[in-house]
Prior knowledge:
Blueprint: H1 19-28, H2 33-46, E1 52-55, H3 57-65, E2 77-81, H4 108-115, E3 120-125, E4 137-138, E5 142-143, H5 159-166, E6 172-177, H6 183-189, E7 193-195, E8 215-220, H7 223-233, H8 258-261, E9 265-268, H9 279-296, E10 299-300, H10 311-318, H11 320-326, H12 339-348, H13 354-377, E11 380-384, E12 404-405, E13 408-409, H14 410-421, E14 425-433, E15 436-444, H15 449-462
Parallel strand pairs: 2-3, 2-6, 9-10, 9-11
Antiparallel strand pairs: 1-3, 4-5, 6-8, 7-14, 11-15, 12-13, 14-15
Helix pairs in contact: 2-3, 7-15, 10-13
Amino acid sequence: xxxxxxxxxxxxxxxxxDAVSLVDAFRTGQRSPIEELDSTLSAIGSSTLNxxxxxxxxxxxxxxxKADVSLPFGGVPLGVKELDSVLGWPDTDACVIFADRKATxxxxxxxxxxxxxGANPIGLCTASEFGGVNVTRTVLNGVTHNPxxxxxxxxxxxxxxSAAVAGGLLTIATGGDGGGSIxxxxxxxxLVGLKATFGRIPRAPKVKLxxxxxxxxxMARSIRxxxxxxxxxxxxxxxxxxxxxxxxxxxxxxxxxxxSLRGKTAVLAxxxxxxxxxPAMWTQLDEYGRRLALETGLRLVEIDTSxxxxxxxxxxxxxxxxxxxxxxxxxxxxxxxxxxxxxGLELTxxxxxxxxxAKIESRRVLLNExxxxxxxxxxxxxxxxxxxxxxxxxxPLPATFGGIVGGQGNNGKLTFPANMYGNPxxxxxxxxxxxxxxxxxxxxxxxxxxxxxxxxxxxERSRPWALVAPHSPH
Length: 474
């Protein structure tokens, strides 16, 4: 990572390296947590990205003054995705209807990264309404912009988190991925985005299991930041009965799996999930994927990677929790919802029944069986994180490369299989196209996160990426 850590001018701007190097700077006295916080708050105040919906400057200053920099993220300013909970902070779901609601608890991941990890939560990063689409533009918060190009989206639903981290406002932020909401914005903004094996980080307390697709994680600038995050935040919690037992040493073991990778098999899948990917983008990703295979000793093979279509039944079930949340407010609130949420609720209202439920489960079985067949044949599926570069920040979703296809977003077709099956997948920055970042998505077998991180590390070392968008308006 040494070649990626930006030279710092103390007090000039927020830290432009990764979070690990910022902690090192705290420990050596090159920078202090309060200096970093003040720089961060100043940058947010002058930013045109609209990456934050709420700030807690006084609370953050109190925490910065008492920061224990011996902890893994000691004193590091932390952005919290708007859909995560922090006791006493707004709990809006990015929806006007809940603009005045306050959180009654703190999510376990935030609790772990702030107590065990020592990070300093400074505010809430914007998200798409209810986390429902891959553009961060809501009636409540307005439009969030991509730091690589104003007027383009940073994606969603973790759009504010990705804009803040890639835009140089802070080094790390929370993210969540129920259908690609970590990997999609990571690909659009040039960040690392790991969706881990389902249950790796508990979603406690008061977890709603729903469709069993949602995963917690982070938006990060580097592989080692991502590994450290999971070292701090993973491990079973009895309030989330599906959470996994704790694992350790992902950061310290980075780079030790080269022998394990050599000889493993991978398939290049430009049409993963039935998606339609921009030919120009795939030309570049194909080259990066082949180069990565050559450098790590992966053996590229050709197999059938076709997947069954989940269809509209899954979209119907995904709206059930939103219907329940809005309760008596619906349908009177229709005019103050984002267009995508309003259309989804109107389309699916009253259609969730025993027949729909049975169809969902039968299609889940088909997908799980097919994914198992594929991962019995290969170790990794290499594809795109997004079908094209970032589209307009205002929307609408593009009709072809970023839009809705058959009831499921074209972006979601690339990312959703891993959510459904529960296997890990990572988005790795792979250069730019037309001046905008693109990401290579690597899917692995369940519990193979350390192999995915080492693939990302190999890319990071051979083709280092910009940790912050060049000329970002902060």
